[in-house]
Design goal:
306 residues, globular, eight-stranded parallel β-barrel, disordered N terminus
């Protein structure tokens, strides 16, 4: 957290005590309620073609928790929040988190309030049973300067306050720019961590997205105990192409078969990262079917004790 020199000595003792207390709370909660799920982007084409059959297939594999990546016009994969929750319940499944980008159009700076669009997003997330409302992107226009970013981090905190009213928390999911872009000599990801209230804004660390940026997911989790309520558990291999669609030299693969030190990071998240949600995500398949990969990934996670 950035503090002036004048107030540093006065505040530091309180901050350390509060941070330590919060970390203990998060870690205790993680031990009680950790879950293993799948980000439905892993089977995005299947969900687009036949969401009902795809959810049944995942349930038959043993998945009990899913995370969405499709919320459009107040519908999840074409179904209202009430309808989608009923479908999930019919398969013995829950959706405790989901991805919806919170952007510039969701905050009215003149009114200092969220637009109806974001309020509906939070309302529908609560209806479907989410614990976390996760934004998986930070638009470039919101991070042009250090001051721009600091201002929008206050919107992050306010979104956390809004979610808290419905018994949820707001979260952020990284890609790779957070570790390659710096503002005022500080990495974007560090600005996010330093400028958000951990009791309101949780972090979903995608260990695969940052691979190849020079950042080390294991060291990040180690440095910030209790901050990573959710992990995107992902392994990486060198991309068969010179660059994949995201301009990176790596792509995801079946857990335990890549180079991303996935198990060690996952175990550290469980031990000291405060992780409650272990969300499998695989976006590339090396010639295998996405559903076959999802099945293999869950088998590996079970072998690892999750």
């Amino acid at each position: 957290m950035n503090t002036s020199r004048r107030s540093f000595l006065q505040k530091s003792a309180v901050l350390v005590a509060g941070s330590s207390f919060l970390s203990r709370q998060l870690l205790a909660a993680a031990k009680k309620g950790s879950i293993t799920g799948i980000q439905l982007y892993s089977v995005r084409d299947e969900m687009k073609k036949d969401p009902l059959a795809t959810l049944k297939a995942l349930a038959d594999m043993g998945y009990q928790y899913v995370e969405h990546a499709n919320y459009v016009n107040r519908k999840f994969y074409g179904y209202s929040a009430i309808e989608f929750k009923k479908i999930l319940n019919g398969h013995g499944m829950k959706m405790l988190s989901g991805h919806t980008v919170m952007g510039k159009d969701h905050w009215d700076a003149t009114k200092k309030d969220f637009t109806d669009s974001w309020k509906y997003t939070v309302e529908d997330a609560a209806t479907v049973g989410q614990q976390i409302v996760i934004s998986p992107w930070l638009d470039e226009s919101l991070r042009k300067t250090y001051d721009d970013m600091k201002r929008y981090m206050e919107v992050f905190n306010k979104s956390g306050e809004l979610c808290k009213k419905s018994g949820m928390r707001f979260g952020y999911h990284n890609h790779n720019f957070e570790f390659t872009q710096s503002l005022n000599g500080q990495k974007v990801y560090d600005i996010i961590l330093d400028s958000t209230d951990p009791s309101l804004v949780v972090q979903q660390l995608d260990m695969g997205n940052l691979y190849g940026t020079g950042a080390d997911a294991y060291e990040i989790v180690k440095k910030h105990p209790g901050r990573f309520i959710s992990l995107h558990v992902k392994d990486e291999i060198k991309s068969a192409k010179a660059e994949n669609a995201h301009g990176e030299a790596y792509e995801s693969t079946i857990l335990g078969t890549g180079v991303a030190n996935t198990r060690a990071i996952t175990d550290l998240g469980k031990k000291s990262g405060g992780t409650m949600h272990f969300i499998i995500e695989q976006e590339s398949y090396q010639g295998k079917s996405p559903l076959d990969c999802a099945k293999a990934d869950l088998k590996v996670m079970k072998q690892w004790g999750y």
